[in-house]
Amino acid sequence: MGKSTALRSFVSKGRNSSTTHYLRLYGIDGTSAARRLARLARQVERECLAGKSVRVALDDVPAGDESVVDRQAASISRMVTSGASVAVSLLPEDDLLAERLSGAIRLTSSDLLVGDVLELGPSDPLYDVRSLTGGIPSLVSALLRDNGTSHVDTLVAGSTYFEALEHLVGATLRPGLLDDEISTRLAMLLLGSGTFDDVASVTCIDPSEIAAGLEESAPLFGISCHDASFRCFGIDTLDGVNACSASLSPKVAPLSALFDSALRMLVERGAFDRAAAIARISSSEAAASVILGHAEEFIDVGEVALIRRLVGQAQARSLITSERAASIELVLSALGDPGFRLPETISSQERSELSSLAGVTPSDALLLGCRAVLAGESVSSRGDDVVEPIGLAAHLQAVQLLRDGRPGAVQRLVGPRVFSSMEGSLATALLRLDMAIACVLLGDDRMSDCISDSLAREFFMRDGYSALRDEETFLLALDALAHGSCDLSSIDALVSEAERSGNELIRVAALMMGAAVEYVQGDYRSAGLRSAIAAGAAGRAGFAHLEAEANVLCCAAAGSSMGIGAVPPNWEDTCDTGELSAVAKLVRSALGGDEDLQDSQRIRGGAALPSDEIWLLRVLLSGKGDVPERLRNLIPHTWATAIPPIPLLQSTSSITVRPRRQPAGRCDDEGLAEAALGVRLKLGLLGGFSLNVDGKQVPEWHIDRRATKAMLVFIALHPKLSAKRYEIIEQLWPDCDYKAGLDKIYQATSTLRKEISAVAPGFDPFLSSRGDRSVSLDPAVIECDFLEFEEAAREALASEGDDMRVLDAAIRSEKLYTGDLFVPTRDFMGYVVARRQELRELYVDAMVAGAEAALRLGRYRISARLADAATAVDDLREDAVEVLIQALRASGRVFEAEQRYKRFAVRFVDRTHMPPSKRLRKAMSAKGNGAKGGPAARSEGD
Fold first, then answer.
1. Rounded to the nearest 5°, which phi and psi values hold at 765?
2. 246-257: pLDDT as tens digits
3. Which pTM does this prediction carry?
């Protein structure tokens, strides 16, 4: 426990047998403190002479000169000599008083750390507690309050923790410390972690002597003099330094040079995100020069807003050249302005070698290339001479490989870099998208699940990267198509947005996705027309492989629609890879008849699986037309297992039909069919999260991605299981604009449909919502445990006057309420937390109503159980304690009633600083064991 908690505990344990005094002296001067101690010493002496046992706790006794310290020590010694037990807390710099108190037992801050936390090892699931708190009691308790009693795989550092951390940092930099110690402490906090040499470089002070004292008295710094290193617990994270900025900012004016030195060292380390956090605290010219000198690296870690703010100011102060400013502005426009285009005057050679443009550095060229490749430009991906060639250079190469129909090569190129690259950077976000697209095209669901593309999506929601979001949106559409849950309206919106942004590559790919959707749905006429449009657009843009793929799809659609569609006569000759040629031969064989039998037999004879064209084969083999059926008969048997058809896409009707429930005991086919029309999805949110479909559980981790679980919970908690789209966006993605939020909703619903379909093929829990712009679950097929509880609890409250009905409803409520409402990690509006509190209060109300009804009916044990359940949730609920005491006394458990009352009274006074109500005290002091409900001797059958 912390020193203040230890002092309070020292006092509270003696309250029953001793006179206690707790005096906190924080914030007053030493002379005033000496006077207050003298008065207290006289009072304590009188109490001891009267024969009383006295305990005294003195918290934060302030420093003073030697005469003041002598007076303070004399007062404390006088209390001890009188027979009082005295506990004192001092700041480390007030050590002179501790020396005057001879014979005292001395404890340092390190002695008060939470031992159980310090014993945690790296393999322990709760090791994060140690890394976030270092065993510091105030941080440990704050972290535990943030996480409550819920069982979570990963601890969440919430507002309570960061408030405690900020308070601790502020106290660490308190006035009264020597200048060298302030500088040393501040340098460690700004750097987060490092060595004593790092601190010396920043402060020009040898920190060894100061660090030796901090190791004993300031565990926040995590100092190890043996290794000459430090690691500031909590504030070594980016969230920590941002949370403590208010405590650090007052030191900017007197120590601006130290902030600049720390920022330079962080840049040298490559810790650009932490350097950006420091730059937002200190806005000196030196800091601006350092940041703009590495503008590309700061852009890569998501700090576009910071660079945009500084570049104009720096140019006005002549901190950078106009050419350098123009180069940075060009990069910012390319990444954040959908209307940006490379100037028409730039030659094709310059477009390929962007670093040859005037003022453009190799790093700038890679960032410009991220936009240029989406526009269809062939950009050089050479990056051996730039700061970070692997990430962005690999991305440029990957996009061009995808354009040329080589997703397998992309997987080999990007795979090693995705799992070893730095989190939270533009390069990593783009590589994750590249890898995810390649995995979907290759049909590699196992690898796709390993790529957390949600992190990439969150990155692109930041300010300044809107022009690159089309690739992310394309991935959503592609992934949805692969799992049979895509709709044309979203694809059409992507086509329009890509056209406005000039991202021609995305526009052509989206046109092909739209054609594929129509083909799988069986609308071959539209699929043929759309694929012909895609082929024409690809041809004009010079995307030879995409043009050939569109021609193959157009030919298959035209054959399925009996010749309708514009298919070029030489469509097969446009195939630029052997694998696409093999697919084209299959299509020609499916359309040709007997004259192509020899080619089809050759294909069936053992041709290698065209892995780079699996996505196209899956589309061609899906649907119910003649061509898909012929293709399924033509492909080799070894291919069939590797190319599962896409689930048939079906539109959801907006008309809800209330089905009949299956009678008990039915197990024949007809009974199963009727069961499929009844409640098929059971959602449990009380005491944790569970989702069951047709009696089979959907693994929770399957829907943790893409905020799917959070969206399901949010919708389920709304009346009629329906929530407006804008409400969902505000709840889950408040930083998104409306269009980006719709993409995320679409992605989350697709994920849920996919996981439910894996358990129950063809089952869709959503209703159509185009008219009212909402997302709705079908109440006819969904059952929620919290709704059942709410119904039972409200029945208990509404049945006043019918005690048997109240009791029955309360007991049902008790069984249904298995724990507090599950709260997902995303609850930005606080809607779920508010509903959880509402249900908690409803539960307590129902338990109290049931307990009172049971007491009137003479069922005292049930009454005590229900009242006890209410106090377990709300331990300050007086009416629950009152009925609990009455029930315990009525059932002969008088001693237990007294103990429960005493514990409640102590708790109530401690928190409210008021005594319990007269009514409760009267209930406790009532004589006899009876109660309003009847004699205690009545037997119970419950």
1. -80, -5
2. 889 888 888 889
3. 0.61
